[in-house]
User: What shape does this take?
Amino acid sequence: MEKGVFLFNKIASVYGLFFNAQVRNFRRILGNIKEESDFSGCQSIVDIGCGTGALCTVLSEYGMDVTGLEPSEAMLEIALKKAGPGIRFVRGDVLDGLPFRDKSFDVAITSYVAHGLMAKERLILYNEMKRVARHTAVLFDYNEHRSLITDIVEWLEGGDYFSFIRVIKEELTHQFGNLKVINTGKRSALYICKIE
Assistant: This one.
């Protein structure tokens, strides 16, 4: 993931410009799907690949104890400046193993991370999410209704985006034994898996 970290260190300031818009978007999305994705019984959550901390900020508004994990130093610097109070940020890369004990959190969530990983790397992500979460693993990512601009950007980034879109549902069902998909917008979805 070193290539990805280098890229995100370079573009972190651009992401920082959109922090407030991302917070508003996450508030809208989570508000719209509140009944379908009830986090009310959850006290702790880890956001894997938290970027600038926008999702962490919104999750903390739900009263959860939030930990954000991010490999990019530049993204973490922005998160520490902009994210809500009381959020714990940790530098780390899921592909190296999460620096948390088994079942440390009620929920493990990741936002727009899985599509950029190769198939073997996604398996590491899923296994680490299962390991650290007691109840639920949630992936917030693209759905099959992608745009041309997204195709171009993802092709330039060099991840496994095109394969991801074709296999995500099958992969998650195979890894977790269950899957609930909630479309959150024209081109995005929450993929929710209960930990069994």
User: Anything to note?
Assistant: The first strand starts at residue 44 and ends at 48. The chain has one domain: 2-194.
